[in-house]
Amino acid sequence: MAVTESSENSFIVVIRVSHVYRGFFMSVPTEWARFHLPNKSHDIERRVYSYVWKAKYQYKVYGGGLTGGWKNFFLENFLKEFDICLFDLISGTDDAIILDVKIFRVVEEVIPPSQVMRETSRGTSKRASKFVMDSTSEEDV
């Protein structure tokens, strides 16, 4: 589905461990960046529906990526490894780079972790994280 919705102004990223669990850096495809972004580091806005997250695009001659702000975007959108993000360039001037983001999930419904109480061997209560997962659908990729 992500490929059919893409255009020459968009790029697709399959979320990897380095994007979401270590480092919180997401590379932007080099050829796409050369054509659509200025050759300098600058701020970028990412939008999902009406919500906006700011990030820093770190320019490098061999290819740049999103750094500052990427972690908040990941956490607040509950991104997981193998989710697919379609980034669509909406505004591409030197002053305002805006990307609309559409998320295609490896797990259709994301349920944030919740805290539950569990009994310990001593009979006291202790907080434990409860993670709920739905079945994976490969048709959406």
Automatic annotation (TrEMBL):
<feature type="region of interest" description="Disordered">
    <location>
        <begin position="118"/>
        <end position="141"/>
    </location>
</feature>
<dbReference type="InterPro" id="IPR015300">
    <property type="entry name" value="DNA-bd_pseudobarrel_sf"/>
</dbReference>
<dbReference type="GO" id="GO:0003677">
    <property type="term" value="F:DNA binding"/>
</dbReference>
<dbReference type="GO" id="GO:0005634">
    <property type="term" value="C:nucleus"/>
</dbReference>
<dbReference type="Pfam" id="PF02362">
    <property type="entry name" value="B3"/>
</dbReference>
<keyword id="KW-0539">Nucleus</keyword>
<feature type="domain" description="TF-B3">
    <location>
        <begin position="11"/>
        <end position="107"/>
    </location>
</feature>
<protein>
    <recommendedName>
        <fullName>TF-B3 domain-containing protein</fullName>
    </recommendedName>
</protein>
<keyword id="KW-0805">Transcription regulation</keyword>
<dbReference type="InterPro" id="IPR003340">
    <property type="entry name" value="B3_DNA-bd"/>
</dbReference>
<keyword id="KW-0804">Transcription</keyword>
<dbReference type="InterPro" id="IPR044837">
    <property type="entry name" value="REM16-like"/>
</dbReference>
<keyword id="KW-0238">DNA-binding</keyword>
